[in-house]
Amino acid sequence: MITIESLTLQRGPLRLLDNANLTLHAGQKVGLLGTNGAGKSSLFALLRGELEPDGGECSLPADWRIAHMRQEIEDLDRLAVDYVLDGDRRLRDIQRRLQQAEQQQAAELLGSLYGELESHDGFTADSRARTLLAGLGFTTEQCEQSVGDFSGGWRMRLNLAQALMQPSDLLLLDEPTNHLDLDAILWLEDWLRSYPGTLLLISHDRDFLDAVVEHIVHVEGQKLNLYRGGYSQFERTRAERLAQQQSAFEKQQAQREHMQKYIARFRAQATKARQAQSRLKALERMEELSPAHIDSPFSFSFREAANQSTPLLDLDKAQLGYEGKPILADVKLQLAPGARIGLLGPNGAGKSTLIKSLAGTLPLISGELKTGEHLAIGYFAQHQLDSLDPAASPLLHLARLAPDEREQTLRNFLGGFDFQGDRIDQAVEHFSGGEKARLALALIAWQKPNLLLLDEPTNHLDMEMRHALTIALQAFEGAMLLVSHDRALIRDTTDELWLVADGKVATYNEDLDSYTRWLAQFRQQQAAAAAQPDASSTPKVDSKAQRRAAAEQRQRLAPLKKAADKLEQQLAKANDELSEVETLLGDSTLYEAVNKDQLKQLLGRQASAQQRVAELEEAWLQAHEELDSLQAALAAE
Q1: Is residue 409 located within the same domain as residue 325?
Q2: Using CB atoms within 10 A as the burial measure, which of 50, 76, 302, 560 is most buried?
């Protein structure tokens, strides 16, 4: 178990933990929560032995193997599958010693090492690594690409696969879903649920936490507070405690007022009834949970657009894709004011392609896109973080958009995104990914959009900022198209789902739970289709060529049969030798200390014999397959 007693942890002048206590039992799956800078990553470093406590104790079993997700990649020339296999350091050590033994032609040592490789499941390692990569969205071809060929987000997926590949008793994962799409997250949930060791997980994805963990450790007030249950249960428990504070009620009432305004305004309108009902459900949930976020530093809204157009966008008979190669065909859609749509679909199906095309950053291959006279798009995509001016501060970024606005007004607005004090005047180049994402959202919110196109807006955002974004989107009265791996955000802010799959965009009339089942069936169908041979790729052979080939095969038939018979005799001999060794190993006295050398020698002979049998069996089967193939060709003639 992990035992933390009276722990004090300090980084420079900042005290992160003070007299903190915690006990975690082997096999538990635990989510670690806390505000940025509370000490979550430092606690991980302490468990890995990279930090020493400033007071108290932190202990865990000495023989535990610890795996963690690295944040950097050094060897860019390594093939992806080899990079993942490098996560299993013992495997690599056995393979290195095997190579040395082969060079030295040390037969006895080779036998021992092959036995060690088999006991470590080394013969299946390559297949397991490729399975991990496939689950995280890599294609078969990408497994053979160099690490340097991938973007930053995909390199982080490689780091995650490497951590999962490493045999471990304690797995430490820091924001593993940040660069994953919903497909990969659902796969990772299944993998982690079946992980047999102890899991400690930092994540800001509430649905992911609910699916994986059964305890929450909240770093708050320099203490480690343990809650039973997943994130939703933690939020309810904490809300009940904080609801006693008057400030919680005041903030809750302010949030409810935003929602009730919308409901009162549109509930009676038939065209808005569905949206109002959705907001009502969200309001009920928010009423229960908002006090849990009373200490959030974020409070903002999207400024309302002065004018609307109906429709805002009209896409007709469009082909969407890259460099003339369509990914989506015959796309026909309209976006009206107030539409709130969540985009679902498998990895690579075209969700981002659709949003880029609507935003105008990706030209249509064919078709027509009409935009309303008063259309004002607020477009968020991950590449926008890179387009921020690294030398400019948050205040300067916003001042460039509003040069005539009072500085204090700009400061107040940015304060809602937690850009306070000196931070508001510091250059963006020193900001974290989360801070850059908050600034990008702040710039969008300021510009009074009436259509939001959001492609994974929660990447890098912590739980409090996600909650504030949810509230802001609930109160936003414009139209919205959302791609997100955060199921809670989709569930709480959209009224309609569209499915992007098989080159089409269509309304999806089910819910997110049904989509999870649909996605599992889609994967099975893809796997089955991949397993089917492509009849069109089978080369055609004319009759003359067939007869000529059959004649050649007849000439080869006799020597192949002779070789197969010889292999059969050698296989029988090798099986006899293996049986002899296994009979000797059945002697119980052999396992006494005085017979250690004899036992080691016999184990080496057993491993060598097993390897010999396996090689001969494979050769024998291959020979008979060739014979069967030749005989079939002769019969066809």
Answers
A1: yes
A2: 302
